[in-house]
Every structure is written in structure tokens, then in C-alpha cells.
Amino acid sequence: MLALALSRSTTGKLASTPNDSARLVLAELSVGLTVAQAAVAPKLFQLRYKYGEEVLVKLLVVILRAFVDSVRVADKPDAADILEMADTLAQTYTHDSVKDIILALKQARTTGTKFFNALDPATIYGVLNTYFEKKARYLENSHLDRKAQAISQEAVALHQLKQTAPALVQNVALTIPDSHPNAQHLRDKLTLIKQKYRRGLLTQQQAEQQRHEVQQAIHRHPRPDWQPSQAAQQQITRRHAAATRRFADKLEIENPKHLGA
Fold first, then answer.
1. Is 168 among the domain residues?
2. Residue 111 shares a structural domain with residue 196
3. Would you say 71 and 106 are in contact if contact means Cβ atoms under 8 Å apart?
4. Cα angle at 25 between 21 and 31, to 5 degrees?
5. How many domains is the chain partitioned into structurally?
6. Which pTM does this prediction carry?
7. 186-241: per-residue pLDDT in tens?
8. Where is the region Disordered (predicted)?
């Protein structure tokens, strides 16, 4: 069908000449065509950008002419009507696809639309408007379905996170740094708690209590500014002075002041 639009035939000739091969191609394109497929097909503005305005109008003329020829009524649109409709569709449905138009015309024939022995442009416009209203509802419902599914997936993920978060927090809290002076002892104690709990020797509450005790033992309060109290400092000073005097007496030093006594 695009080959016809790209041919050297004028738009007027395509609009006025019946074409059985175009009808066959149109029927083949419409087989199994769904709204979802039509919605993702290239849009009219994209075809205009790629092939130009004239080719786009020709393509719509071929589609409309094939549809008009397929409807068995006495009064049909003439070439001028078809050309005018093609130009109107190209300007109106810029963000819809050629397949949308093909599907709309197919549904008009297959859903029992009554043309009352006459087919005019107004009827075709009405058919297209009905289709695009249905398409809008379909896209809206699809969006709501995807949104509901996403919310459901988020709820499941949140529930799983709530289930696993306490265990993750506990594992982080029970991480024993290698620099801890009692690291191996605390690891052994955690292993023992785990084994006892698995064998039923500890209740869950008892196991949690013992893990909490280990956690408290893991946490070491830094004391970079630690200083002894005044009484402790005096005791340390006296102890150092006594040790200095003993050292001076042993070496028979008469004046041990230079030793710090």
C-alpha cells in the first residue's frame, strides 16, 4: 500500500480509480489487527516527517478508496470527497496511526454498521469518531490496569521488605568488627545461641535476649577524652613516686629528684 502512495500516480488518479489490489492489501493488513497493535504503530506525523505530506495524503486516499469500493451501496463519495477526507484525516489524527484508521474502517464493516444504501463523508467521520472514542477508553483502562498492577507489586515488595528488614537490621547490629578484643568469643557465643535455638534448647525470647546481650558487648563506647579522677590521679602519682624511691635506693642515688621523685 505504501508502494502505491510512493508511485508516480497523482492523488486525483488514486482517488478516482478503483484498485482491487489495494483492497486486497487493506484486507491483509486488517487481519488480526487489534487496538493495541494500532496504538503502537507509526503515527501520521511520523509518516509525514519521513515521507512528506503528499505521500501521507496519497496513502490515506488509497485506504479510503479501498474502503469505499468495499461497501456495496449505490451512493458513494466521489474522488473529490475522498481527497478532502484524506487531507482532513492527515490534519486531524496526527498522533494516531494508519492502522488505527484501517481498523476503524474494518470495524465499521464487520460490526453491522447500517449505511442505508448511501455512504457519505459524514458517515465515515462518524465511524472514525466512534472508533477513537473506544480507543481512548481502551487506553485509559489499560493505563489504570497497569497502575493497579504496579501498586500491587509495590505492596508485595513492601510487605516482603517489612518481613526481612528486622532480620537485616539484626544482622547488621550483630556484626562483630575484627578489631574487637573479644571478637572470636562473641562469634562463638552467637553460634552457640543459634544452635541452641535450632535444637529447641532456647525459646525465641531467650535467644533474642542473649543476642541483645551480645550486641551490647559488641558496642564499645569510644573514650578519647578519658581522664582519671582527682583521687585516682593522686594515687597514681604516689605509686609512681614510691617506685622511683625504691629504684633510687637500690642504686644508692642520694638525690633522685632528676628521676621525677
1. no
2. no
3. no
4. 145
5. 3
6. 0.56
7. 788 888 888 888 888 888 888 888 888 888 877 766 665 666 678 878 888 888 88
8. 203-234
- Distance between CA atoms of 95 and 85, rounded to whole angstroms? 17
Q: How far apart are CA 114 and CA 71, in angstroms?
A: 11
3-state secondary structure (DSSP) of residue 251: coil
Q: How many other CB atoms sit within 10 Å of the CB of residue 174?
A: 16
Whether 145 contacts 137, CB under 8 Å: no
Listed in order, strand segments (DSSP E) in 53-96 are none
Q: Range of 183's domain?
A: 174-218
CA-to-CA dists, residue 237 to 242, 244, 256, angstroms = 9, 11, 15
Q: Judge if 129 and 182 occupy the same domain.
A: no
Q: How crowded is residue 101: how many other Cβ atoms within 10 Å of its Cβ?
A: 25
User: Are 59 and 137 within one domain?
Assistant: yes
Grid cell, residue 53, equals 505530506
Closest CA to 108 of 71, 77, 142, 136: 71
Q: Of 100, 18, 135, 122, whose CA–CA distance to 67 is shortest?
A: 18
Span 83-115, pLDDT tens digits: 999 999 999 989 999 999 999 988 888 877 777
Averaged pLDDT, 36-40: 89
Place of cell 625504691: 246
- Specify if 158 maps to a domain: no
Q: CA angle, corner 76, sides to 111 and 32, nearest 5?
A: 30
Residues 63 and 30 in one domain: yes
Q: How far is CA 106 from CA 5, 63, 76, 90, 102, in A?
A: 20, 11, 17, 19, 6
Measured CA angle at 220 (ends 219, 223), to 5 deg = 150
